[in-house]
Design brief:
mainly alpha
Length: about 260
């Protein structure tokens, strides 16, 4: 694998990766989608393709902390609707990685994230105009058991699986889905926590098979995981102080920033 070891990093490069790891912890327990900034930092410091394999165990550590924090708020019917489509997306993403170069990967994911943010903002404006709210903390609020809801779940699921496989960028896509489904803060965080723990763990064999995870990458991960914990603690403190409207705006803003970073880097 074309990557650097811990010993080849400069002090500034290691500091940047440590900050990105801290941000992973924060995003998992506060503002999902913010870890697209971490993705951009990892891709800037390390070779872009190799960075996805190094980032994956860091994300899994954040997922474990998020599950421990919000495990009682997951909405499992939504998860079961998503997983089959996500599996298809992961398979397509794996095939995509076999031939796509870094530039194609970044451009594709950036465009998808910006489109998802635009669609979600449009849907939220429609819902506000119709005064259609009433979602609970643990249930989806826009009739995702209907035929149109199932189609939407499958579409987002495939996109989420694809983006999480090729660039660990599935967070913003699934954030857009959960927001469009009307999830409140705790239901949003609990459902996304279990979703990404299961999906990210399932990606490990694929990433290892592609040569994106090896002994050197795991050594660097063992050091960076330490910084995920304070980020998660900070996120747990912050989420109690963020109201629902601000929470949604931060998630969408993080998605837009992440998409632009991928397109401009």
């Amino acid at each position: 694998m074309d990557t650097m070891t811990l010993w080849h990093l400069t002090g500034w490069e290691f500091a940047a990766l440590a900050f990105a790891a801290l941000l992973v912890g924060f995003s998992k327990t506060a503002v999902s989608g913010a870890n697209t900034v971490s993705l951009a930092i990892f891709a800037a410091v390390l070779p872009a393709r190799a960075s996805t394999g190094i980032l994956l165990p860091v994300l899994i550590a954040g997922d474990v902390l998020a599950v421990l924090t919000y495990r009682r708020h997951a909405h499992w019917p939504t998860l079961w609707r998503l997983f089959p489509a996500v599996g298809v997306g992961v398979a397509v993403g794996t095939l995509f990685l076999v031939w796509a170069d870094d530039a194609v990967v970044r451009t594709s994911i950036g465009v998808i994230l910006l489109l998802m943010a635009g669609v979600t903002m449009w849907r939220r404006r429609q819902a506000e105009a119709a005064d259609a709210s009433g979602a609970s903390d643990s249930a989806d609020g826009d009739g995702t058991s209907s035929r149109s809801g199932r189609v939407k779940a499958r579409s987002y699921g495939v996109l989420g699986g694809f983006t999480t496989m090729v660039a660990n960028a599935g967070g913003p896509v699934m954030s857009m889905y959960l927001l469009s489904a009307g999830f409140r803060k705790l239901g949003f965080l609990g459902t996304s926590a279990f979703f990404f723990l299961i999906v990210n763990v399932s990606k490990v064999p694929f990433s290892a098979g592609l040569g994106l995870i090896d002994g050197r990458s795991l050594l660097l991960d063992a050091v960076l995981v330490v910084f995920v914990v304070p980020g998660a603690v900070l996120g747990r403190w912050a989420v109690k102080r963020i109201n629902q409207r601000l929470f949604e705006r931060l998630v969408i803003a993080a998605t837009v920033v992440g998409g632009l970073q991928l397109l401009l880097t």
